[in-house]
Amino acid sequence: MKIESLNSIDSTEPYFVTIPNNLAGLRIDAALSVIIPELSRSVITNWIKAGAILVEDKIPKPKDKVVGSEKVFITPIISEDKLAFTPENIDLDIVYSDENIIVINKPAGLIVHPGNGNWSGTLLNGLLYHFAELQNIPRAGIVHRLDKDTSGLMVVARTALAQVKLVEQLQNRTVSRIYRAIVTGHTPQKGVINKNIGRDLNNRIKMAVLNVGGKEAITHFRTLEYFSEFSYIECKLETGRTHQIRVHMQSIHHPLVGDQTYGSRKINYPQSIVDAIISLNRQALHALKLSFIHPATNEVMSFTSKIPEDMKVLLQELRGEVENFDDEAYDDGNWEVMYVNE
Hints:
Blueprint: E1 2-3, E2 15-18, H1 28-35, H2 41-49, E3 53-55, E4 71-74, H3 80-83, E5 94-97, E6 101-106, H4 123-130, E7 151-157, H5 160-171, E8 176-184, E9 190-194, E10 197-200, E11 203-209, E12 218-226, E13 230-237, H6 244-251, H7 271-280, E14 285-293, E15 300-304, H8 309-319
Parallel strand pairs: 7-14
Antiparallel strand pairs: 1-2, 2-4, 3-4, 5-6, 6-7, 8-13, 8-14, 9-12, 10-11, 12-13, 14-15
Helix pairs in contact: 1-2, 7-8
């Protein structure tokens, strides 16, 4: 094979190859698959159809035969899923890190893992930039997710062994995850929602409570504060299903404020509250506290994250002139204590 470019054939840059004379008579896609075994014949065929391969400056058809000595110009088409694992200089709020784990305070709006048309600008891309060794760890060490518009704490594994141990803790339900949320209506003082969750049978991009099938999902909640038409609640996950809190709270008729997928369309609140909800521009959900066993030292690690400013603004608007609740207070150990202000 003769490659007339300084770039290797694995490069994303264009390069030239020359068809050897001993391949004369083969189809162009077959000849190129011999010359460049790193590319499958189906990939070569797709590149030809996309106009990314020129033979003597002309776009061939995959079935065209070669005669030998043709110069072929190739412009690699890099799939989006490969670009997804490109390091990007994204600012990350790193709460804690050592040689085994990283704890991140994720802002609302940041997607955790590439996919579904969002192939860059994710937490994964930022992790690969700031921690180059994560290139060697599946999913760049990510062991659990938060929705794009949910803020708060996440733990990331920095080694393969740490990743295995953290995943085991998640499966064994020994990781404690506590969230704060603002929901519509007045919730019970406390409760447990034990309803299976799976894909919505009528809308595959949504999740739903299912009477048949789905995966077990358990959410504990308690009410911290009541407002005229809203409740401020704390949720503790026993399982970690996609959109779990959002789907479960909707299922008991208390959807999260600002949730565009599962929330209420009602907007006839006082204008100042409507403005605060519009300014929030997301579901009012924050991962406040995260506790787990350190995968190397076996110590219990606990982290807390302050309520973000956009949720604070909404809470202040709901409270009006009265400041009757300490947003930074939390009590993970005693869920029998209620913080309800009628």
